[in-house]
Amino acid sequence: MDLGIAGKWALVCGASKGLGFGCAEALVREGVHVLIVARGNEALEAAVEKLLADPLRPKDTAVEHIAVDITTVEGREAVFAKRSDFDIVVTNAGGPPPGDFRQWDREAWIKAVDANMLTPIELIKATVDAMAARGFGRIINITSSAVKAPIDILGLSNGARSGLTGFVAGVARTSKLASANVTINNLLPGAFDTDRLKGTMAGAAQKTGKPIEELMDARRKTIPAMRFGTPGEFGAACAFLCSQHAGYITGQNILTDGGAYPGTY
């Protein structure tokens, strides 16, 4: 299927590895020019090399990068100084650390909300009006399946990402955006084979004293697909939501979790 987005420009955050990289890879393969962002320059440059070497990348597809902390004002200013307009924006920030809510102070909460709620809102605010003026825009927020099925040790993430979900539910449905072919959707990953999952499992192993592989195997068995997801298939879902074919999908929370969520809605 031709997604109809070749030649568009995308900003993909947290794209040096994991789910962010999977989204950048899928978009590049569709001929979308990308500006990828992450904090670590070394990992970011390695990601650029991999994207440029991808045999499925149309040869004229540009891959640019900038190493900044997108959760800061200075980081966002640097991004928009490099390129001011984007047709596609994929927001993504590393999730807050797991733990016991009794140990989190105000600073921990503010940091979580700033990264996982306010930063996506700032990126939306900076791009949607120009998208509407051009008649095309796609914003994808990478959040978490924990928005629908909270995980006790991920309280910081549960709270901050749920706040973003509520905001998007309202702004995505404004007629000024929806009628101008600008959509905003959230992708809710379940358990994917990423460093984030390994970090969470390591924390659980430390807490329980059980071997990490035992915990990983137990987690797999809770998923009807009996496996963890891959960044590549997550990226494919993202690319479709960014496509010309997804213009009638907006304000939605789309689970990609191998069937793990047990609810009807």
From TrEMBL:
InterPro entries: NAD(P)-bd_dom_sf, SDR, SDR_fam
Gene3D superfamilies: NAD(P)-binding Rossmann-like Domain
Domain of life, per lineage: Bacteria
Family, similarity comment: Belongs to the short-chain dehydrogenases/reductases (SDR) family.
Protein name, as recorded: SDR family oxidoreductase
Lineage of producing organism: Bacteria, Pseudomonadati, Pseudomonadota, Betaproteobacteria, Burkholderiales
